[in-house]
Design a protein that fits this description.
homodimer, alpha/beta, seven-stranded mixed sheet, 17 helices
């Protein structure tokens, strides 16, 4: 099977290398920065499965002797110094060290030196993608970042090529595998957030310091990239609203179930009348929807277009091999001179909309009280005063529980919060939690 | 919003036209053959939403006076003669007349004249795609067919670009919106096949002569294209096994429901040890799976890769606007000189595997009998003799019904059929129906 499927990659070798345009099967020399999970998966595909004209020549990593493996061809040079790579004759530099620095500087140096760059670095692309793309254009080289969003799910190329003929108005997705693992565990087993997090850490789905994932910052960077390529909206990542999933408790899953729902970290960006509505937050989603069915490290992206309607992309959003597929696909496109990513985002045409998280949607409101009946009637009254319609009052199935919940019909979270603050008898509610319900 | 989103298309205009490479924003002149549902949707996007450098110059259709509409710019020439288009200065000819002839001849003539072609014609591409791609290469022009499979779902470009770095071993999907509409109607409402077909015809989801769809020939052509671009397997469409969905009765949905399943027309192509297992047939799929949840004209394609695992693409597989998105995306890629479709399939590297429909899978066997207990025990005995394990015996919920059903564990359909033929006491079974269960 391998020998047959190797042709899958080999077919692409027919294309000519961007670096040496015109010559058939010109060799494309590749250097990898960072030999971690993704870096080693990329190296293995290049070493064992890629066509001959893709040639790995350098691997750069700290403490390189600790990293060396025997399956890398002997002619590949191992180094700890980025300058060795920069001064080499590599055509494409693959940046897989992650984080803002030194990754950003190294990408800039590589482009300045006229070397094309493939990166999986969502933070660098979210923060300075347009600037780096301009630099690549000036230096007549390329920058591709298909692996920066949704791992192996080819959503960047799909938006830039396959849906190029549509006018996308909304992008909604599950973009963080760690949160999805934790929330699907909580939903399936009834575990608390902390238990699910510890389990995720044990299994390697969550970092020792999981805040980037849990707080939504990882998904936010990916959403900013999607907003730019799909909606052509320039948005500073820090302006996108984030709410951590750590606020979710098992009781929320119980209430959600009564509504035929579960809870996922959902990232949404929608352009409406010149305003970009964007947020990364836990949300109630239908159990039987693609979002509700997504388990573990699955990612989903749903694009809504004026002509094509909803188009959904789903698959493994994390892990060495799936992410490596995206990286190698970008390298192949570069070698074939068909890469689009470097042209797709034209910063001069992007708009800079106002960013808001004040979506109109229905909401779930959960609160703790020791006087359920009084609290619910006070709440309903407060909402009615503010002309917010209550959808349903959810039954508290455990008598000892101090939690109650209601759903409210379409309104903005700001209006809902205002109504709750104004009408809340503080002696009844200890606190409340608002979660949007997304369909 | 339109003025903002128009930039989505406009961004792409930054790329240079393939026809006039090097000049920035060179004009790309477009002629459309066929002004039906898809043709007019493409024309509308080009007329009202596309960047200036995409210029519609010709529309060719029979009885053209009947077709003329006022929203087409006056400088566009209407004609009934293909030769007018061929002798024009069109750079890209968009073939949307469908069917094998004259579409195939016209595409060949256009390529011979050095004009690039965008087509939504699954039959022509399934039958002579590689030959036409070679011709395009020889004449230094391009051929793109992103709209030939799954309408607006960009699965062709996703496989050729986004998943280029993977080795795909299996492609499975719902590729025919008509069958999906009929089967989802039958599942939801309990309607018979004929009732659901008539309803589909009334609503425009099925042709007056629906055999191409119902019998699986439409999906088969699309599957042959996917097998070639994804699995690099040359396969003559007529060698792909098809079973019509007209054999499905409401009772099959009732039994399927007991298994947590529904029924969909599923197209599968899998390379295993040099054999291409391929079939288009009704199959039991889990109610809560993406296939089970697909309604109406939705299409789904699931690609299984060695490195990236399962990646799912889903959206509207039919209709003027979604299909037009795929066509316009191909035109934009051509105008940008980034088109991959014309390079992606390199016939010289394709394999020509043996084609078989003898998949190992579990099956559902439904039969009619007036002696349920005797029939079931005879059936179980016949299967046991052939070492095929019975999974479950399904309860016949209506006493008056003459139908019974069992499931059998993983085996080939040929082994199952042999066992049933050998062990079937003809006085008990009037007939039986076998449907694979796909997970």
């Amino acid at each position: 099977l391998d020998s047959i499927n190797a042709k899958s990659l080999h077919t692409k070798s027919e294309r000519t290398c961007s670096i040496d345009r015109g010559k058939h099967k010109a060799v494309c020399k590749i250097a990898i920065l960072g030999f971690g999970t993704v870096g080693s998966a990329v190296a293995r595909i290049l070493a064992e499965h890629a066509p001959d004209h893709l040639r790995l020549i350098h691997i750069c990593n700290r403490d390189v002797n600790r990293k060396k493996v025997d399956w890398i061809p002997p002619q590949v040079q191992w180094t700890e110094r980025f300058n060795d790579v920069l001064s080499s004759d590599a055509d494409v530099i693959v940046e897989l060290i992650g984080g803002l620095q030194p990754a950003e500087d190294w990408i800039r140096c590589a482009l300045l030196a006229g070397k094309s760059v493939v990166t999986a670095n969502k933070q660098v692309i979210a923060d300075c993608g347009p600037e780096l793309l301009n630099l690549a254009k000036q230096r007549n080289c390329r920058l591709a970042f298909g692996a920066a969003v949704a791992g192996g799910v080819p959503v960047i190329s799909a938006i830039q090529d396959g849906l190029a003929g549509d006018e996308i108005s909304k992008i909604c997705g599950i973009l963080n595998g760690t949160c999805n693992y934790i929330l699907s565990e909580m939903g399936d087993s009834g575990a608390t957030f902390t238990t699910a997090l510890v389990e995720a850490q044990k299994r390697g789905y969550a970092e020792a310091d999981p805040r980037e994932d849990i707080d939504g910052l990882d998904a936010r960077a990916k959403l900013a990239i999607l907003a730019r390529i799909g909606l052509h909206a320039k948005v500073c990542t820090t302006r996108i609203f984030c709410r951590a999933i750590s606020a979710i408790e098992p009781v929320d899953f119980e209430f959600a179930k009564q509504l035929g729902c579960t809870i996922r970290q959902v990232s949404t960006a929608e352009l409406n009348k010149g305003v970009l509505f964007a947020a990364v937050q836990p949300a109630l989603v239908a159990l039987s929807s693609p979002f509700g069915l997504a388990r573990g490290s699955q990612n989903i992206v749903v694009c809504t277009g004026k002509f094509g309607g909803e188009t959904t992309f789903q698959g493994l959003g994390a892990g060495g091999n799936p992410t490596a597929v995206a990286v190698v696909s970008d390298i192949l496109a570069m070698a074939a001179n068909t890469n689009v990513s470097s042209n797709g985002v034209s910063p001069s045409h992007d708009i800079s909309p106002r960013v808001s998280n004040d979506f109109v949607t229905s909401h779930y409101v959960r609160f703790s009280t020791s006087h359920t009946m009084r609290a619910v009637s006070a709440l309903v009254k407060a909402l009615e005063t503010s002309k917010i319609n209550v959808g349903s009052v959810l039954a508290n199935r455990s008598r000892s529980s101090k939690f109650s919940a209601v759903t409210v019909q379409a309104c903005t979270p700001s209006a809902l919060q205002k109504a709750l603050k104004q009408g809340r008898p503080s002696d009844i509610f200890q606190f409340y939690r608002i979660i949007p319900i997304l369909n």
